[in-house]
Write a structure and sequence with these properties.
The chain is mainly beta. Helices cover 14% and strands 52% of the residues. An eight-stranded antiparallel barrel has the order 1-2-3-6-7-9-10-11. The chain has a two-stranded antiparallel sheet with strand order 4-5. It comes from Psychroserpens algicola.
Amino acid sequence: MKHLLLYFFLLIPCIGLMAQDNDNPIADVKVQDSIKVVDDKYREDQFYVSITYNLLGNKPDGVSQSGFSSGFHFGFIRDMPINDKRNIAIGLGLGLSTNSYNQTLLISKFNNDFAYSVIDGDVSFSKNKFTTYLLEVPLEFRWRTSTPTDYNFWRIYGGIKFGYIVYNSSKFNGSADTIKLSNIDDFNDFQYGLTLSAGYSNVNFHLYYALNSIFSNEAKLESSGSSIDMNTVKIGLIFYIL
């Protein structure tokens, strides 16, 4: 009997050790479950929203901007990394854009022909602007400091943006007359320009410089008969949303 009791007390520590060993697989599973899975094939697929101040370049003599000319842009860009670290990529997207330009170039229509003239300083008016609505395709070369686990990073995205004007309009409100026009034939339907976006995290500086003019060669000033070679420069902020 004494021998049985001795064996019993000797077995207790062994049973405890065996129980600890049996618990280890469960503990290992819990540790593995707590480890964050890293996506080493991540992409920066992004929705973007941009607000810009629109400037006019190459303005004809006498034409000036008045008021605030704004642009609103939004769309989606597909990110395609081209290196193992996935911090260099090509981005291709699709978006929409609306742009207004407050200025002193009057667009009117006579006998089904559009006419362009500079508003005289003596003419009183409350509004004179033209507006364009575009379908856009941005193409970007992208560099960033992102990692699979870091979503706040520095970025520099440069490229080119192609746009097609799907609708345009102009509006003049003067003391003596109101002129509203739409689908003006003399706009260049196809627009393209260089883009640059740079910054940190979601909010970034954005620049667009048009490489072609807003109007076609058919649009000419009444006073001189010269072509209207105005292009656009857009400066603002762009917000990237994963």
